[in-house]
Amino acid sequence: xxxxxxxxxxxxxxxxxxxxxxxxxxxxxxxxxxxxxxxxxxxxxxxxxxxxxxxxxxxxxxxxxxxxxxxxxxxxxxxxxxxxxxxxxxxxxxxxxxxxxxxxxxxxxxxxxxxxxxxxxxxxxxxxxxxxxxxxxxxxxxxxxxxxxxxxxxxxxxxxxxxxxxxxxxxxxxxxxxxxxxxxxxxxxxxxxxxxxxxxxxxxxxxxxxxxxxxxxxxxxxxxxxxxxxxxxxxxxxxxxxxxxxxxxxxxxxxxxxxxxxxxxxxxxxxxxxxxxxxxxxxxxxxxxxxxxxxx
Length: 296
Prior knowledge:
The chain is mainly α. It has one domain (28-291). 73% of the residues lie in helices and 0% in strands. It has 12 helices and no strands. It has helices at residues 7-41, 47-69, 79-95, 101-122, 129-146, 155-174, 181-192, 200-205, 213-238, 243-249, 253-265, 271-287. α1 (7-41) packs across α4 (101-122). Residues 1-5 and 290-296 have low confidence and may be disordered.
């Protein structure tokens, strides 16, 4: 005799799948910081070439994946999504020439959180008190990281990373309207590719393009695994939760990236980074319990 699956069982399975999907997304985001920093740290590739390979390989992989499911696929996305993706990826690469993996991720996702909270508020999403306190707490941590000091990040690179975070925040909010995450992510990657021509003059008349085999491999890993797969999963994840919850959830990425930077890149774990990480995690702890409902 077969036992019917009850609604609580189905809900529990759904929650488990969502939690696994969310964890994979966050690890993919942290991996992007590790791959980019490792490639650019020792000049193994220039930022423009890294961005171009990342977007080209991610778009090609997603197109092959969607064509396996449907020989005549229809891609979605939007030009706004493509522009946001390009600006995020390009500014991300330039900023990581001088920023450590953990510090860069902290600035990036601090800006992401603020952007997503503002956009969700403008769209009429109610902001609960604990969520607001959590956001302010995390923002204070971001400001503490940017204060002058021996281990303060270069202000120019920090501002570029913050601008990259604004672009990613916009991209994430657009994902809440996604009916087909894979098709929309593929379409956004496809629309970002014409914008790569904007990098041509800098590559031709600037310091010039330079690539080594390890640098290209890191860019491919960032494009195919951490970006192509990770972003498609993210569009499937972010539509199930509120923008506030998605924004706050991403603040765990800097902690993952910082630990990865210490372990894989031999980056120092400064007292400032430890303290800021504690503040950021405190912000997450304050915000998430207040907003556990799912919603679009």
